[in-house]
Design brief:
The protein has 250 residues and is mainly β. The protein is built from two helices and 14 strands; from the N terminus they run E-E-E-H-E-E-E-E-E-E-E-E-E-H-E-E. A hairpin with a 2-residue loop joins strand 11 and strand 12. The longest helix has 7 residues.
Length: 250
């Protein structure tokens, strides 16, 4: 069985959610993610994870939505040739800690097969992982399967994988003027040099720009009953983070 080595862990800090009154969720703490990419990740967008989100379902407060955003920015948006990584090379995971020890107790594992326009996604989980940490193997069980760009539903769990507008707002040009050491190695943003050490305001002669407006990422979205994630022993609190991993031989 192949093993995968994690290359990107964007949200090691926990986004803790608490069950209130048995159904509703409230976010108690949310710590920032790390967007400093290594050259390997920057040059291999399939391994990039931009953000991880966890929030109550807008239609049913007893359900939770988890989002793993990868491969941003995709320009132009809806680029038909953009795909998720293939099963023999890339493994995408959402990891859940529901005991408070900062180790994953449950995992969602996503793998993809096929070419652009005809990719299929398989989701395993939520299940107990075979191992914790940066080296992982596929868990057992029958995966939820279907085509990308469609909503797949089974036993109360919904899955979508495909391009979506990147929801993050950032004046990225100004960010790289403040911290030019974080700028990418290639492209127009790599030419930015030191500038004013403040972000631009929303109004004025030189307003802030939502650099990601109209830019897509490749999103993996799961909606499911919160009861499948929460643990009564920790009052329903759980942490969420995401990883991408590269396959290696045994």
């Amino acid at each position: 069985m192949p093993k995968w080595i994690s290359l990107r862990v964007p949200l090691v800090a926990l986004a803790a959610l608490t069950v209130v009154g048995g159904s509703a969720l409230t976010v108690r703490t949310l710590m920032a993610s790390d967007h400093q990419d290594t050259p390997l990740v920057e040059l291999s967008p399939r391994f990039d994870v931009n953000d991880v989100y966890a929030f109550p379902s807008p239609t049913d407060p007893s359900r939770t939505v988890l989002v793993l955003g990868t491969s941003s920015p995709i320009t132009p948006a809806q680029t038909p040739s953009f795909t998720f990584g293939t099963k023999d090379q890339e493994l995408y995971q959402l990891k859940i800690d529901n005991t408070g020890d900062a180790n994953e107790d449950l995992v969602f594992q996503f793998t993809f097969t096929g070419k652009a326009g005809k990719q299929k996604v398989s989701m395993r989980g939520p299940m107990k992982p075979n191992s914790v940490g940066t080296q992982n193997t596929l868990v057992g069980g029958k995966p939820l399967k279907g085509y990308t760009n469609t909503v797949i539903e089974q036993n109360g769990v919904k899955l979508f994988a495909g391009p979506r507008d990147d929801p993050f707002f950032i004046d990225l040009e100004q960010f790289f003027r403040i911290l030019p050491d974080r700028r990418p190695e290639t492209g127009p943003l790599s030419m930015i040099t030191q500038g004013p050490l403040t972000f631009r305001s929303a109004t004025g002669d030189n307003p802030a720009v939502d650099f990601l407006r109209g830019i897509n990422d490749m999103a993996i979205v799961v909606e499911l009953p919160t009861s499948m994630l929460a643990n009564a022993a920790t009052n329903g609190r759980f942490g969420v983070w995401g990883t991408t991993s590269r396959a290696r031989g045994n």
